[in-house]
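Treating backbone geometry as a discrete language has practical consequences that deserve illustration. Part of our work consisted of pairing the sequence of a single chain with a tokenised description of its backbone. We regard such an encoding as a compact summary of how the chain folds. The amino acid sequence and the backbone structure tokens for this protein are reproduced below.
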Amino acid sequence: MTTFASGTDTLTRDALTVLQPGFTGTTAPDWLLRRLGEGLASVGLFGRNIASPEQLAALTAQLRAERDDVLVAIDEEGGDVTRLEVRTGSSFPGNNALGAVDDVELTRDVAAELGRRLAACGVNLNWAPSADVNSNPSNPVIGVRSFGADTGLVARHTAAYVTGLQSAGVAACTKHFPGHGDTAVDSHHALPRIDVDTSVLQSRELAPFRAAIAAGTRAVMSAHILIPALDPDRPATLSPRALTELLRGELGYDGLIVTDGMEMQAIAGTYGIERGSVLAVAAGADAICVGGGLADDETVRRLRDALVSAVRAGDLPEERLADAADRVRALARWTAAAAAADTERTPDTEVGLRAARRALRTTAAKAFTPLTEPPYVAALTPVANIAVGDETPWGVAAELFRLLPGTETGSFTGEDAGGTALAAAGPRRIVAVVRDEHRHPWMASALDTLLAARPDTIVVEMGLPQATPRGALHIATHGAARVCGRAAAEVIAGV
């Protein structure tokens, strides 16, 4: 078993135990290995840490050589938010595509295969699934990360996802409690506010979390959102009413509570990460997620010292910190037991593609004739939200090039996007790829321009299909994962 460094007292070890920091690079830095020896119990991985499955497996083995029961967490939702396949696009469609199919067995199978791949690389905690009911179509950060806008659908697929993921020995972390779906603000940038009464919160936002808890989710992630009906003063991550009274008390949840990233501006820009972390643990959180933006030893030291100082000053009960650390260790024990119990499962490498194909919705004004000549793919590209990132490729161009060699492509944005795309396309048939047309007036205007000049333009919507379908063929993929692009390309090329 792990041997802790001498001289590390219990209070300091507990403060390190509740942190889930990130780091840069594809191997573990010396400072991280040293902190593991001092009591750090979790590490968070992001796309910057992953080059290949083999490299990831070597990295997690390096971490476990220092601490055998370390929790290795990752933000791998599949679909638009992927870290395993950050440079290629995901082999799995995201939640919205699974919700569009509405086959809970398929959702369970997709999550189980994703869990199998994570476990094979040594990852045992996944910050997924998103249980948010996307009731606000203008939501800038959830969107296709949600199973949908219907509460019952989101609840049953959240439960299926939790079951599938944990069947592979990977702990699910259901997020973003108590629900981030009805926001028009991204909590990476500011503090969102949801003005709903308690009855709506109970019937809509909380239903998927009840389903996740019933399915045995091992972790829940809190949201940096202010819901005045629940707590008029503090966002859920820092609210005893949200975490202790509601989640622990009323919903009866006894697993690990993880915060969303503490460097997000909803917390860092209002409370600061040190005070925010102390308030979060005092409110009932057990693990502090940090490292998406702040990924160094100094951040770990600052948060460790803030927690220790708060206990010594009487601002944070020592038993609350000890309880939080115990919950982290309990989850580590569960993952070890689950990994030992999991038998070698048969890979189902095509389940993601099957799901993506079933999620497609096509609309055509008349019978569509598949293309036989290489088209021009005009990608009308919005700014990606931070959760998705801009390093992951998306669209249909690469897959169309595979099926129709000679396919060309370009990316366009802004007021002149339509005219510029027309000029670039020349005489070629145009495939216009959009992402959330309904949220971007410039994108709708560009489509107007393209369709006025070239009515035979094919439109592929890879975000939420809220805008009225138009074009010679309109394909809604319900997400921008690589497999979603492949499924759309197969329809366009008739294969």
Remarks:
- The chain has 18 helices and 14 strands.
- The CA atoms of residues 410 and 488 lie 18 Å apart.
